[in-house]
Amino acid sequence: MPKRLVTGLTSNGDSCIVDETIFGLTLHGARNHEAAQHLLFDAPCLTVPVVETGLHLDLGVPPGGVQWSLIYGTADQRGITPMHHTDSFELVTVLDGAVSLVLDVGEYLLAVGDCVVQTGANHTWRAGPGGYTMLIAILGTDPAKSDRI
Questions:
Q1: How far apart (Å, rounded) are the C-alpha atoms in residues 127 and 82?
Q2: Can you give the CATH number for the domain in which 123 is found?
Q3: CA atoms in the 13 A half-sphere facing the CB of 97
């Protein structure tokens, strides 16, 4: 069954999973060519935690801006991106293959259909043996701090 992970920070400031939900994709009400919706995540406001450690990566998405991308990773790119945090709120869905979300407190294997709500916490991605394809929507947020690395 697909899962949704939501990142955050421990009381020590380490990146971690703050919510994990396993969900089924049984769509009810899709009769007579009607559309059906399966809610994956909703939030009344988007907040990004203040991250005190690690590399700050500027994704070039201004506060209030949106970037929507397909990301392809291959097995020979394992570990290329260093641990980093961003001034963004990212909605990620694995479309093909497998990829690990690496956080300060552990590594979480994601497969097709799995989702991540990345809240700007320290993280990196590690490709599975067959690579991966992810769909990612990046929503720019206000910088949590002005003194960046």
A1: 13
A2: 2.60.120.10
A3: 18
- Find, among 118, 2, 125, 5, the residue nearest to 75 by Cα: 125
* Residue 113 placed within a domain: yes
Closest CA to 136 of 116, 120, 119, 121: 116
Which one, of 145, 147, 137, 133, lies nearest residue 41 by Cα? 137
Nearest residue to 127 via CA among 102, 98, 147, 106: 98
| Threshold 0.90, pTM exceeds | no
User: Using an 8 Å Cβ cutoff, are 99 and 136 in contact?
Assistant: no
Please write the tens of the pLDDT for every residue from 86-122: 889 899 999 999 999 999 999 999 999 999 999 888 9
Tokens of 97: 């293959």
Residue 40 placed within a domain: no
Q: Copy the structure tokens of residue 128.
A: 């599975």
Tokens of 130: 């067959």
Residue type at 139 in one-letter notation: L
Tens digits of per-residue pLDDT, 84-95?
988 898 999 999
Between residues 33 and 74, the one the model is more confident about: 74
Contact call for residues 55 and 84 (beta carbons, < 8 A): yes
